[in-house]
Amino acid sequence: MAQKKKSVQQPDVSAPIHTRVLIIGSGFSGLGMGIALQKAGIDDFVILEKAGEVGGTWRDNTYPGAACDVPTHLYSYSFEPRADWSQLFSRQPEIFDYLKGVADKYGLRPHIRFGQHMTRGHWDEAENRWHAYASDGHEYIAQFVVSAIGALHIPSIPQLAGIEEFAGAAFHSAQWDHDFDLTGKRVAVIGTGASAIQFVPEIVDRVGELKLFQRTAPWVLPRSNVDFPQGFQRALRRVPGLRFALRNGIYWTAESGAYAMNKRPGLLKGIEWAGRRHIRRQISDPIVREKVTPDYRAGCKRLLGSNSYYRAIDNPKTELITEGIERVTTDGIVTKDGVEHKVDAIIYGTGFHVIDSFTNLSIKGRDGEDLTDRWTQEGVQAHRGITVAGVPNAFFLLGPNTGLGHNSIVFMIESQIHYVIQAIELVDAHGVAALAPRREAQDRFNESLQRDLAGSVWNSGGCKSWYLDEHGNNRTLWAGFTWQYWLQTRRVDLSEYELIGKRPRPAVRSTVPAADFPPQALPANV
Ligand code: NAP
Prior knowledge:
By secondary structure, the protein is an alpha/beta fold. The chain has 16 helices and 20 strands. The chain folds into 2 domains: 17-154 and 353-502, FAD/NAD(P)-binding domain (3-Layer(bba) Sandwich); 163-226 and 259-348, 3-Layer(bba) Sandwich (FAD/NAD(P)-binding domain), CATH 3.50.50.60. The relative contact order is 0.14. Residues 67-70, 152, 158, 173, 190-196, 213, 215-216, 302, 325, 349-352, 466 line the site of NADP nicotinamide-adenine-dinucleotide phosphate. NADP nicotinamide-adenine-dinucleotide phosphate is lined by residues 67-70, 152, 158, 173, 190-196, 213, 215-216, 302, 325, 349-352, 466.
């Protein structure tokens, strides 16, 4: 399946651009997909990127204190390990630099078209090709389309009454306004999720007053970062197997949390005990302690870790406000108890459109069927979280039910990328144009998935989270251990697929080896 090298032409709206594989997005998923295609001998691919640089979420989230809450020795590609991560939980600039470095090292930039925001695409049954369109009118024609857009990229700003009347500075955590000087200002922060707990401690000393609007208290466990000294980094570089052992140690430690989250949420009481103790140690006021204590099972929403968040709440400059927001005025926020909180700036730490991000693209599959319509009616579902019945040759990296509450998402991405490469190779090996999962296989997969999720802490833990859709179905998280996902995506099972195009030849087995286990834990040189 080696392809001829094809350089990407300069944009010309008048002429469609033909490519074999169209990748949308250049974050961890898109870059990883491009590299895997190169390794498989496919050089005819284009990566569309809506922004002006690679990096996805690690390009966009520049808020103070932005860092990964999974140890970076695991939250990085298995084939591109680094011995010189400076900290256990790397900060955004280091991860962003890593991704830019990967794009350069693998020569991906000539394949990337920046400033191309893909908005719609349809499958042409006569040609067996995708036609995809960017918002500026560029047309791309491709045999395969890989969505690598991630799930956390459309900032969600609540529709609060009067929000447009506010005259001060207002921005979302993923669109941080670095030109706005917070020094001495009265600042409102709305939201107390994974992003807010990272930036609140970073800004509290600078601002004049901090008004923290909490709707639901998160569970926050003690966590301190560790700087890796030069000597340790050298040892990781030189001592055979050390980096491998570290990566594996982190992986299996994280993986051990999956059992309780999936099968026995009651076991998470121990975590709640640690969370309460953390509150008692860091917050002095009993009323505030009570307000920050969650009333649902730990793990139901993402478990957070910070040694500085509760201290920031305990800071005399901070006021924790738990009355709901009634409306925004020109110079403040009025809560449901009628109190007006005057502020100079509002920072929205209010998260992202997640489930609806899947239906944000207009995708039409076979018979012109609109995938958004189907997903709106039936719920967002895919086969093994990657492919969709009736939508040939389209692959969704980090698609439905492949998010995680307990381990590194890069593991899932690498498992999926391997699956996509196998699928493309099978299309070639059978001399057909396309493949799509059979509806029965997809339904079977999703029924079993939903059965497994029913007893999980995310479904039964007594909280309202963005993991669940409006009908209470979990459309975002994987059920079970990540090694089980790896096992299920290690090989494309052709009995689950329909081959489209020319008459299929007798069954051919993929020559792409099944994925190694666990892909995230094996350094490239092992
Ligand atoms: P988030 O976890 O969805 O938190 C959003 C916060 O805003 C919640 O506290 C939510 O309250 C609140 N909120 C939303 N709408 C509101 C409204 N109308 N009024 C009042 N409060 C409102 O978002 P996030 O903190 O940006 O994190 C999103 C995800 O990004 C995380 O779950 C994680 O997967 C990822 N992330 C990862 C890292 C990392 O280190 N790897 C770091 C940051 C973020 P409710 O809880 O009541 O809904």
